[in-house]
Write a structure and sequence with these properties.
The chain contains nine helices and 18 strands. The protein is α/β, with parallel strands linked by helices and 345 residues long. Strands 2-3-4-1-5-6-8-7 form an eight-stranded mixed beta sheet, sandwiched between helices. Bound molecules: guanosine-5'-triphosphate and magnesium ion (MG). Magnesium ion binds next to helix 1. It comes from Methanimicrococcus stummii.
Length: 345
């Protein structure tokens, strides 16, 4: 990768959509294939997120030349449950998602949370793609595991292709109704004008190389300036969840999207009323699967740089607010940071 691009952080990609349309399965597929291709690089499990390094993605896309072309260190995927809480999180977190994937079950079509997801992304002007999932369930579909969409599509019978087209254009029609000019991804020349739609199966991996490739392309095209960050700057993130953990007491799961957070740092966390000011007692990441002999599921780390998902243990965080900001502060910046956190609640 080119030297000058070393300070681009990993883009955060939110996977959204209606309940049961296949968000988690899509991520499992990306995780799974990446683990199989393990020799290319290591998948990092974060709290509430999965990081897929660029070399794994490049390997998966099957074109080594991409390695020189792409500038981001990888993609950090965040799964979201198909429920309302995410709206709140997005409104408060603001810049949490750099990119998004909206998952639509091609056999079920548009549903309320599909529309809700689109509205959130419209409001925040987040670049995104739509995937029409579960193509393997189209009557007569012949599975070609892990292949690109066009490769598997071209091997289907004309009848199956016809059935696919019918369902696919139904989704395109719904997107138009929602005010989006959309088309199949391989026919899109300008992703700024036209929304790219990728047919996939999260279960069989068909179309997944296309998803990874298009996401990298979007990151490259639209995010270069917003992904530049100061790795030595204060840690800035959003609280995903407040959770009781055995042996740790109350903890908060945080997605860090700027700077670096260290053990012992003073942090300001949003809540109703005056923000919490406390000190990071422990920064925790999930233990690797190979380390399950340990009593705790978590492993302490000294510091963490954006973008990352991390669990924080600290005193007095019981009434931290999911969706609220968390920012680290020095004695000099503390008052200003408190004001900033307060203004974002
Ligand atoms: P919530 O988190 O509850 O909103 O659901 P989700 O969107 O994460 O859906 P999930 O991945 O849990 O999938 C729901 C069901 O659909 C599971 O039984 C999956 O196995 C199945 N499924 C998901 N993707 C596919 C696919 O591409 N093909 C087929 N045949 N089944 C799928
Ligand atoms: Mg899920």
């Amino acid at each position: 990768m080119a030297e000058e691009n070393q300070n681009l952080r990993t883009p955060i990609v939110c996977v959204m959509g209606h309940v049961d349309h296949g968000k988690t399965t899509l991520l499992d597929q990306i995780r799974g294939t990446a683990i199989v291709k393990g020799e290319a690089g290591a998948i990092t499990q974060h709290i509430g997120a999965t990081e897929v390094p660029i070399d794994v993605i490049v390997e998966k896309c099957g074109d080594k030349r991409l390695a020189d072309k792409f500038i981001v260190p990888g993609l950090l995927f965040i799964d979201t449950p198909g429920h309302h809480a995410f709206t709140t999180l997005r409104s408060r977190g603001g810049s949490l998602a750099d990119l998004a994937v909206v998952v639509v079950d091609i056999n079920e079509g548009f549903k309320p949370q599909t529309i809700e997801s689109l509205n959130i992304l419209k409001r925040f002007k987040t670049p995104f793609i739509v995937v029409t999932n579960k193509i393997d369930r189209i009557l007569g579909w012949k599975v070609h595991e892990g292949e690109s969409f066009l490769s598997t599509y071209n091997k289907q019978t004309p009848e199956v292709q016809g059935l696919f087209e019918q369902k696919f254009y139904d989704v395109i029609g719904h997107l138009y109704e929602q005010g989006f000019s959309a088309d199949r991804f391989d026919r899109v020349t300008d992703f700024q004008k036209t929304l790219g739609v990728i047919p996939i199966s999260g279960l069989t991996g068909e179309g997944i190389p296309d998803v990874l490739m298009i996401l990298l392309g979007l990151a490259q095209r639209f995010l270069e300036s917003s992904l530049q960050y100061d790795i030595n700057g204060p840690g800035v993130g959003t609280v995903l969840e407040v959770k009781d953990e055995k042996g740790l007491g109350t903890t908060i799961d945080v997605i860090l999207y700027d700077g670096t957070l260290k053990k012992g740092d003073t942090v300001v966390i949003g809540r109703l009323g005056e923000p919490i000011v406390t000190k990071v007692r422990a920064l925790l990441k999930p233990r690797e699967l190979s380390e399950i002999r340990y009593e705790s599921k978590f492993q302490p780390i000294q510091e963490v740089a954006a973008a990352a998902g991390v669990k924080i243990s600290a005193p007095d965080i019981d009434d931290a607010l999911a969706g609220a900001p968390i920012i680290s502060a020095t004695p000099e910046t503390l008052d200003a940071v408190i004001e900033k956190v307060k203004s974002e609640i």
